[in-house]
């Protein structure tokens, strides 16, 4: 079973979250194990309880959440995470996929680091619409 992490956004002013409780409900129905970082939906007006009701496990930020994820859903580019005490990219394991805005043109060093670490990324801003 693939493990999906819905990450909490730490960028100042960011009010979005990468998955709503309804999205989580659909992912769980499809057989994914979904973990939501506590408070991830707070600024988007989704409670931890709503995510739990949708079938997600809600947990505080911890390195094992990140290293144990097969897929990380995030809005903002990977960054220093106060809950981890380090950069989010440093917690990912080989084979993980990150879906979100990556700003690869502004983060060449991070892109190289992810490539060298065997991390797949889907930069949403580069997906044609």
Molecular structure report:
The protein is α/β, with parallel strands linked by helices and 129 residues long. The chain is built from 4 helices and 8 strands; from the N terminus they run βαβαβαββββαβ. The strands form 2 sheets. Strands 3-2-1-4-7-8 form a 6-stranded parallel β-sheet. The radius of gyration is 14 Å and the shape is globular. The model has no long low-confidence stretch (mean pLDDT 96).
How would you summarize the topology of this molecule?
Elements: E1 3-6, H1 21-29, E2 33-37, H2 48-53, E3 57-59, H3 63-67, E4 71-73, E5 80-81, E6 86-87, E7 97-100, H4 108-116, E8 120-123
Parallel strand pairs: 1-2, 1-4, 2-3, 4-7, 7-8
Antiparallel strand pairs: 5-6
Keyphrases for this structure?
two-stranded antiparallel sheet; six-stranded parallel sheet; 8 strands; 129 residues; alpha/beta; 4 helices
Unreliable spans: none
Radius of gyration: 14 Å
Q: Termini distance?
A: 30 Å
- Sheet with most strands: 6 strands, parallel
> How many distinct beta strands?
8
Count helical runs: 4
**N-to-C series of helices and strands:** EHEHEHEEEEHE
* Main structural class: alpha/beta
Q: Which word captures the global form?
A: globular
Mean pLDDT: 96
Strand order of the largest sheet: 3-2-1-4-7-8
Helix content percent band = 10-25%
* Beta-strand percentage range: 15-25%
């Amino acid at each position: 079973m693939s493990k999906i992490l819905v990450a909490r956004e730490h960028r100042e002013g960011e009010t979005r979250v990468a998955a709503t409780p309804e999205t989580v409900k659909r992912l769980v129905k499809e057989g994914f194990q979904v973990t939501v970082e506590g408070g991830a939906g707070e600024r988007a007006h989704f409670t931890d309880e709503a995510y739990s009701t949708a079938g997600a496990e809600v947990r505080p930020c911890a390195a094992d959440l990140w290293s144990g994820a097969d897929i990380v859903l995030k809005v903002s580019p990977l960054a220093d995470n106060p809950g981890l005490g380090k950069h989010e990219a440093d917690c990912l394991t080989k084979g993980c996929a990150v879906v979100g805005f990556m700003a690869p043109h502004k983060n060449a060093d991070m892109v190289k680091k992810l490539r060298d670490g065997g991390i797949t990324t889907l930069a949403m801003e580069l997906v044609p619409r």
